[in-house]
Amino acid sequence: MKIIADTHTHTLLSSHAYSTLLENVAYAKKIGIRILGNTDHCPAIAGAPQVWYFHNQVAFPEVIDGVIVLKGAEVNILDYEGHLDLTDKELNALDWVIASMHAPVINSGTVEEHTRAYISVAQNPAVDVIGHSGDGRYVYDYEKVIKVFKEYDKIVEINNHSFMTRAGSKKNCTEIALLCKKYRVPVVVNSDAHFCTEIGHFPHCIQMLEEIDFPEELVVNADYDRFLALVKEKSGRSFTENVIPR
Ligand SMILES: [Zn+2]
Ligand SMILES: [Zn+2]
User: Which of 58, 102, 143, 188 is 20 to 30 Å from the Cα of 69, by its Cα?
Assistant: First the structure.
């Protein structure tokens, strides 16, 4: 499986990551990643950029040195009602929106509470991707919620960082991926890079997906044309043909 896009990456603007956008782009180009998601943390995380940072991503070109850069955000799920820390209007202006639970922002609750939160987030049309939901601190009713992700056209993230940093992730991510396979829910394989040299490296995700014989056609970023079509649909942007690198 060849992954051509890495759509969950951070820059030093997240304040606990260590590369610039240009360093991320340069590394992506070097290792053959053709589409990069710029998805810094959102304001509820201490030190994250303020709201202006996100909509002002129009300041950089849609293609930098041959790499398509998606203007995105990793928005925080604030509570069990599924509220987020950017407004729908702000999120709708972006190409790529990942919604995640983070320990400094939302307390670990019960399975029922996490289930309620994810079902609410699933119903928000401004959200494209459910981020690193295999986290052992936020276990939800996988069977029930994965079907809701399918119903509301959400993409489920398989996050390489999780296997190293979020307890319980290997077991939980495998269970989530098996349900995505069962219900034909698309997944996206991401690095969640906090330093440029992590970009494009997903060994734990690939190994797990191969172990369960996960269908490649459900991995949205395993094919350039298919993924670009999806991004156009999700972002509403046209990506004029003359700027799209071939
Ligand atoms: Zn995250
Ligand atoms: Zn992240």
Answer: 102
